Please model this.
Amino acid sequence: MLKNYRDFTRLEMERLDKKNTIVLIPLGSLEQHGNQAPLGTDDIIAEAMVEQIGKALEQAGEENFPMLVFPLIPVGLSTEHKNFCGSITFRPDTYYHLLYDICSSLAHHGFQKIAFLICHGGNTPIVQVLSRELRSELGIYPFFLSSGAFSHPDVKATVSEGNIWDFHGGEMETSMVMAVDESLVKLDTAEAGIPASFVQNKALLPYGTTSIGWMSEDWKTKEGKPIGIGGDPSGATAEKGRIILETSARILVQGLLEIRDWKE
Model:
């Protein structure tokens, strides 16, 4: 079972082998995920992923894996969603400095390995920049992990046939929430979204080699109403969510083992 950073006393923390302990920092967000999924979808997924990572490590024979779980950071960089009700965002510089100061404090007390568990894609650019700056300025090792193995064959197989645009707030993310608490999802209010301005394009897409910083308003219903999600979440189920969470955690194990053994 993974241990929580906040549960340690000062004396216990002083005695910890901080040089060889990984601090896992889950990064979530508080933002719209369509009509059907809660604003805290990414936070819920982050907490579930931590639990699944612990189980996956135990199944791999790593019951005493040297990692502490830092408290979830529940708000992130969600500029793309800010015009949809309920969404909360830091400014990029605020979020950068928040994470920098946390890592600076950890480094001050002797921790050298930090692993960001990214559970909202919008947080990724800040973490990528931050990780290089922290390594350069503080001499510590910041790693980053993706919480969703959305390109894995087992995960892709959970997406309903014809649901080609599944993305933010879609079938996969909604299923992940349902695996935790089905009562939080209201499928009867679900609407599908497509990137209306991109559907006829071959190269310029919301993601890929030729892209643009998309906004939630780019994702619309077939009637043209901004809905802010990708794909059709109506096929979401708790069982699909369990497959996605378990698969996503399982494929992180090898990377975590290599982070543990990392030596520059």
